[in-house]
Amino acid sequence: MWLAQLAKAMPVTAHAVPIPGSRPLRVYAPDELVRLFWDALADAFVRTAGAATAMGAPAFTAHEPVEVSGPTDWLDAVEQSEKAGVRVVLRLELPTAFDDPCQAVVQLRSVADPSLGLDAAQLWHAPPAVLARFGENADTDLLLALRAGARAWPPLAAVLAQASPTDRDRPGRRRRR
Q: Where are the alpha helices (DSSP H) in the chain?
């Protein structure tokens, strides 16, 4: 939200940067430049002079391209997720009171129409016209992404245990007793 506010506050002279190779000439939208800046900043943090030695992973820390050898099964999973009709994202809902927990809501974003988002709990109740924009295998893509995500963030495993996700069983939500 604050990145959107930052982009909105940018004067035209700050984002009137031509997009290379665009014909007719186009300029970047403010929110796109802010996103590109944050991506470049995050990338630069791991590419310091001693990072490759310290991390022992030059493929992800070196300035120059590095050929990757060895087990690369994880690349197949990345390629499969790139071919999916959906992207699975978590929307964080900030608490309204100081002592309330933050909640994460599993959402789907359409690859065909990135402006189209849907809470995972609504997937099985969405009209066919909406479901078509998420691809033929939206439910399978959702489950595969949740399984991969649960390895990185264990609270997602609770969502996998449900027949279908619901609003009251969100990952990261603590129940009051």
A: 2-9, 12-15, 30-46, 51-55, 58-61, 73-83, 128-132, 138-152, 156-160
Q: Cα 106 to chain center, whole Å?
A: 11
Give residue-wise pLDDT tens across range 82-125.
677 888 888 888 888 777 787 888 888 888 888 888 998 888 88
- What phi-psi label fits residue 172: left (phi over 0), alpha (psi between -120 and 50 degrees) or beta? left
Beta-bridged to residue 89, according to DSSP, are 107
How far apart CA 105 and CA 41 sit, in angstroms, is 27
Say if CB 165 and CB 95 are below 8 A apart: no
Could you tell me the pTM of the whole model? Answer: 0.49
Using CB atoms within 10 Å of the CB of residue 1, give its burial: 0 to 12 exposed, 13 to 18 middle, 19+ buried. Answer: exposed
CA-to-CA distance for 4 and 72, rounded, in angstroms?
Answer: 36
